[in-house]
Amino acid sequence: MTTTAHPGTKGRGTAGDPGGIREAGLAPLGGLVWLVWRQHRLVFGVLLAVAAAGAVWCAVLRGQTAGFIDAHHIAGCSQISLDPRCEHTQEAVTTFRDTYGSPLRLVEVGLVLLPVLVGLFLGAPLIARELEAGTHKLVLTQSVGPLRWLAAKICLPALVVLTAATGLSLAFSWLWQVAGDEVSGFYWYSTLGFHALGPVPVAYSLLALVVGVLAGLLLRRTVLSMGVTLAAVVALQVALAQLRPYLLPVVTTKFPHHRPAQLPDDAWLVGQGNYTRSGARLPDAPCDPGPSNESCMRQHDVAGQYMDHHPASHHWPLAWTEAGIVLAVAAVLTVIAFRVMRRRHG
């Protein structure tokens, strides 16, 4: 059977496509998606399987920790607590941390490493391996436009990463509701805790994927792209960690002289010092402890101590704000990747 161009289509229509709708250079999206799935199904399968196993492990661990906490009545108690109801619970809290601390830390570390692993083993090789081997030329000669090919190469992996990271993050957040903060000693504001909870690991995983893709497009070498992706993802995480305390205004609590300065265990202390009667701040301790401390305090007109902190209620606003910044960076890098593809492959 031969194909015949229909009048008015300038040769683009065929007998199977009488309206000339299917233009040359626009391959069916389903075929591209199937191709990407076939090429990377092993990595996709491993990622989804690990996420499913991690979610199940979080559910089991939640049941175990909840049972221990309820049996020993230590909810919200730490090893050193000013809450009267937590009196005589130090031994139980210590036992809880000795028993469940390592499994909780393992899940935390896994979620913190997830973006790095996505960037290394999925994002960086996604394009770089094909450009390095030259197999992209075969695909682009099969009536597939370069931008359409890149879109398929990014969208399906992004969907898999989004599904895996979201599922694992939700499971860990569900576990954290029972075992997090005071009782475990793993606080929401710690580096591991913040990066493992809520939308943060999901956003960083998507960012790592895009960083890897862009590195592959620019460098065209798999191993080199993996190294650059690792360095870039870690650098972005460190940079945003330095910015994190300033994403929301801090809460300042003042403690008058001779009153103990004590914040809740789940408060994130970001700054402290002394203040004078006029309200001026003295960030550095003006007096050394000793017999002359009182007279030195009076000499500097010290009225008390202040503490700048983020209370636990700031956790989710901070997390969503940082995740939004990360996703904005990912969107910009995605646009750059498409511009690079258009410039190099038309």
Count of helices? 9
Approximate shape: elongated
Radius of gyration over C-alpha positions, nearest whole angstrom: 28 Å
Average pLDDT, rounded to a whole number, is 85
Q: Structural class, from helix and strand content?
A: alpha+beta
Structure, briefly:
By secondary structure, the protein is α+β, with helices and mostly antiparallel strands. The chain has 9 helices and 4 strands.
Written description of the protein model:
- With 346 residues, the chain is an alpha+beta fold.
- The chain is built from 9 helices and 4 strands; from the N terminus they run H-H-H-H-H-H-H-E-E-E-H-E-H.
- The chain has a 4-stranded antiparallel beta sheet.
- A hairpin with a 4-residue loop joins strand 2 and strand 3 (281-282).
- Helix 1 (29-72) runs antiparallel to helix 2 (90-133), helix 2 runs parallel beside helix 6 (200-219) and helix 6 packs parallel to helix 9.
- The two termini are 33 Å apart.
Topology:
Blueprint: H1 29-72, H2 90-133, H3 136-140, H4 146-179, H5 191-196, H6 200-219, H7 222-243, E1 251-256, E2 268-276, E3 281-282, H8 293-299, E4 302-310, H9 315-345
Antiparallel strand pairs: 1-4, 2-3, 2-4
Helix pairs in contact: 1-2, 1-4, 2-4, 2-6, 2-7, 4-6, 4-9, 6-7, 6-9
